[in-house]
Design a protein that fits this description.
By secondary structure, the chain is α+β, with helices and mostly antiparallel strands. Helix content is 40%, strand content 21%. It contains five helices and five strands. The chain has helices spanning 68-95, 101-123, 128-135, 153-161, 176-179; strands at residues 18-24, 27-33, 36-43, 49-56, 59-65. The strands form two sheets. A three-stranded antiparallel sheet has the order 1-4-5. Strands 2-3 form a two-stranded antiparallel sheet. Helix 1 (68-95) runs parallel beside helix 3 (128-135). The N and C termini lie close together (10 Å).
């Protein structure tokens, strides 16, 4: 369900590609080719910003000019992706025999502590970036190796995973992952 659609801009499609430029305010925008939705763009800033949408060979892309909240969120999520890649690299090295399992656990625990400190600091923000950071501020179930803190994984999710999140914050519904 796309809701009510309002035409904001149009562009000529040439060889399956186009570029749209305009000024928009905060909200979810559906990119359509004819009557078919081909992507969504979340504009987080409430003030009007410049937005360029392009449909290329790899699908739609959005470029936000002046959208500081979108840029901050993108930078934060990029840090999360890099952290996940670094953790995967450590485990890959352990699987290839380049370090022991114990070394990999120690290295990733150290990485997790640093990442957690950054998540908690970012979660102090009063905007959507802070809400997203709070969702990433959970302590992994496996970090309690004694498994004494929680009776089972369901108990962990109820008391641990969501403990740092602000899931009742109305801004959570604005997070593109939850919106979709």
């Amino acid at each position: 369900f796309l809701g009510k659609l309002n035409r904001i801009a149009t562009a000529k499609v040439t060889d399956g590609q186009f570029t749209l430029k305009g000024r928009v305010t905060g909200g979810m925008y559906t990119l359509m080719v004819g009557q078919a939705p081909v992507g969504q763009v979340a504009v987080l800033d409430s003030r009007p910003i410049a937005l360029t949408l392009a449909q290329g060979m790899n699908g739609p892309t959005a470029t936000y000019t002046e959208a500081t909240l979108n840029q901050d969120l993108a930078m934060y999520l990029d840090m999360q992706r890099r952290y996940q890649q670094e953790v995967q690299q450590v485990y890959s090295q352990a699987q290839q025999g380049q370090m022991s399992r114990e070394q990999a656990i120690a290295v990733t625990a150290s990485m997790r502590r640093k990442q957690q400190a950054m998540n908690l600091k970012t979660a102090e923000r009063k905007d959507l970036v802070g809400v997203v950071a709070a969702l990433y501020s959970y302590e992994p179930y496996g970090s309690d190796t004694s498994h004494k803190r929680y009776s089972n994984e369901l108990d962990y999710f109820k008391r641990g995973f969501f403990a740092t999140s602000r899931i009742d914050d109305p801004m959570v519904s604005m997070i593109p992952t939850f919106y979709e």
